[in-house]
Amino acid sequence: MQETNLITDIRSTVIQNRCISRDVSIITLHCPEIAINAKPGNFVNVKINSSTQPLLRRPFSIHHVEGPNIDIMVKSVGCGTALFCNAPEGSSVMVLGPLGNCFNLEKNRFDTAVLVSGGIGTAPMRFLETTLAKYGKKVVNLIGGRSAEDLLTGNLSNCRVSTDDGSEGFRGTVVELLGNTLPDFEKDSSIKVFACGPTPMLKALARFCRERNLACELSLESVMGCGIGICYGCSVEINGPDGGKRTILLCREGPVIDAELLVE
Ligand SMILES: Cc1cc2nc3c(=O)[nH]c(=O)nc-3n(C[C@H](O)[C@H](O)[C@H](O)COP(=O)(O)OP(=O)(O)OC[C@H]3O[C@@H](n4cnc5c(N)ncnc54)[C@H](O)[C@@H]3O)c2cc1C
Questions:
Q1: Measured in angstroms, how far is the CA atom of residue 192 from the centroid of ligand 1?
Q2: What is the 3 state secondary structure string of the chain?
């Protein structure tokens, strides 16, 4: 579903920057114009400094909204994210948003939302969970990581975790964890799955949901430049009508797609 957002590009102050694990920080930005229009699944495109290194903005999901502020959960993986994770409180960045479409919360279609995330894919889940709670939905979080130190469960409720190495929770993938726990949720409610994480996880999850006829939406990632459909840097192939394929710009028709559309 494509959404029309009221997009603004604003100079925003870093209100707080908290390191929550060895390589992940939560950064609070003062952006009233974005906070008021944001929906779960939306993202922002951030120019981290005024230099040409890095030249392009970097996209981040909106992790949480509180009054005039938004939180961004950032994993340091390269030059832009390392700079952002070290942004001093009181410094400023340019923030363009809210961008992209949002999760479809079609209020009457399900009772229980199962939020499945892997690694930094947990970033959009807090905003999604608080919005679902306002709609009176039951929320379960299934969170996967390579090992215990990669699990990002903070501020999420009703969490069950999996690790590849068995250092915490279920040993295996988060999709296998879903397979194990699904009968508990399915007993007395209708379910919708919402997910974000690495592409192999999303492919396995899409297959799992397709085989069981479970409603599922995925938030995808791609390399991205402008965030507003000009540079064509984020084109992604999805399943089209009649068994064909079609290409979308993830910044405009994504990042959220129905799991049925994910190419295997
Ligand atoms: C819609 C969207 C939402 C995102 N939300 C978040 C979020 O909430 N938190 C978060 O930490 N990250 C998020 N990302 C990923 C984040 O944008 C990238 O990690 C970041 O752009 C990397 O910048 P860098 O300069 O640190 O890395 P670079 O130095 O440019 O690259 C370092 C490594 O990261 C990889 N990389 C670069 N861009 C991306 C990308 N867009 N996605 C995945 N890998 C990438 C490169 O291939 C390379 O291996 C999101 C991406 C998209 C498209």
A1: 27
A2: CCCCCCCEEEEEEEEEEEECCCCEEEEEEECHHHHHHCCCCCEEEEECCCCCCCCCCEEEECCEEECCEEEEEEECCCHHHHHHHCCCCCCEEEEEEEECCCCCCCCCCCCEEEEEEEHHHHCCHHHHHHHHHHCCCEEEEEEEECCHHHCCCCCCCCEEEEECCCCCCEECCHHHHHHHHHHHHHCCCCEEEEEECCHHHHHHHHHHHHHHCCEEEEECCCCCCCCCCCCCCCEEEEECHHHCEEEEEHHHHCCEEEHHHECC
CA 176–ligand 1 middle distance (angstroms): 26
Which CATH architecture group holds 8-99? Beta Barrel (2.40)
96 C-alpha vs ligand 1 centroid, how far in Å? 16
Let me know if the fold of 8-99 is the same as that of 103-219. no
- CATH: 3.40.50.80, 3.10.580.10, 3.30.70.100, 3.40.190.120. Which one for 103-219? 3.40.50.80
Delimit the domains of the chain by residue range. 8-99, 103-219
Q: Is the pLDDT of residue 150 over 90?
A: yes
DSSP labels, 241-253: GGG-EEEEEHHHH
Does the structure show a pLDDT above 90 at 154?
Answer: no
Residue pLDDT, tens place only, 178-235: 999 988 877 767 999 999 999 999 999 999 999 999 999 999 999 999 999 999 999 9
- Residue of the CA atom closest to atom 36 of ligand 1: 223
